[in-house]
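Hi R.,

Here's the input for the arginine complex you asked about:
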Amino acid sequence: SSNMMWGGRFSTSPDAVMEAINASIDVDRRLAAQDIAGSRAHSDMLAACGIITAADRDAIHAGLAQVEREIADGTFAYSTALEDIHMNIEARLKEIVGAPAGRLHTARSRNDQVAVDFRLFVREACDRTAAQILKLQRALLAQAEAHADTVMPGFTHLQSAQPVTFGHHMLAYVNMLDRDRARFIDARARMNRCPLGAAALAGTSFPIDRHMTAKALGFDGPTRNSLDSVSARDFALEFLSAAAICAVNLSRLAEEIVIWMTPQFGFVKLSDRWTTGSSIMPQKKNPDAAELVRGKSGRVIGQLNTLLVLMKGLPLTYSKDMQEDKEALFDAADTIELCLEATAGMVADMTPVAEKMAAAAGAGFATATDLADWLVRVLGLPFRDAHHVTGRIVALAEAKGCDLAALALADLQGVEPRITADIFEVLTVESSVASRTSFGGTAPQNVRAEIAHWRDVLARE
Ligand code: ARG
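And here is the predicted structure with arginine in place:
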């Protein structure tokens, strides 16, 4: 039989492969709730504007409620022949309520219908993702609070650079994630305009009230151009961009957890809940969750690319290519949410090993900058000269196979005769971090002030 929606123009059924390539129901069935919400708002508006009767509206509402129940209890029969979620729901509505179902699509096209459904979904995804980010920020903040004074090596080039505190390091991610969260909040605000009522592309001759449907669906108002309304997918691109950036930030933290978990570093421990064993090597405790967060970031980046490439050549307005947008977005939204949850779980579970980190913080002449700063502050050396003197002292320590603090005063004076014994006070990792009191620096007193700041910020969310 020919299609129930456009059968008037068609006399034979589609080829089976045509049906297979055309159908999106396996993917867009996830838009059922949004589709029903859109139809409720649309039918209310049609009745309020005198385009359908109150009786039709009531029948449509009753039928949609039954469809909703059938979907919830798993008895709804999805059909590939009916292509997508919009036609599946409308066809079932017709079976339930008859003629009024046919009036629901007045002044509407699947083009504005899918645009509103998808916006509703992406808007919710923004809210969910922002909430997950907040949970992760709280987990990081709790670690920062517990370890405001715990010294660890700070790295550049993955080489020990200067001592910092673990709390400071945790707060770096709190800052990064706050920008990630803001990106989702901004994207949501920008996408919150309702395309419903643009109809196929040109608007409609029916006396509809787009402000009414926009309000009913929680939008700030209707979109202003019917062509743009059905063409735009940049709201989904913004979500994917924010998700890709967030995924990259998570991947960097995951990479650090992987490094910290190695027996060679041993900076943190994860419990059995967040690690896996090896089927052959009994000693292993692998940070699989962290590796998967790192790995899955590639999926999110890939889905951003999928939609960018999908859209780049499309003329206005709708082309069927755009049906491919949902799979990309759903996958990225699921992935970023799962990665955020897993990262929050790992961060909460993580036990820093203070002794290991302190030992590593002192290794590699990590207080060489403190020594140079002392030469500037106490002896009045220009920093460049102090750097040179310190370099010679580091070379000496390296030749002797000892730390800077283990050199004898006579050794230091052999390089720079004016050095006095109180230089040793700045060579410990504790004094090094305590001295970094510049705004944004790692001194524990700063870290505690920042913790208070972030506690306030996050409490307001
Ligand atoms: N399933 C379609 C999609 O997701 C709905 C819109 C169909 N519109 C059309 N003109 N064929 O894009």
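One thing worth noting: The beta strands are 151-156, 159-165, 268-269, 351-352.

Cheers,
M.
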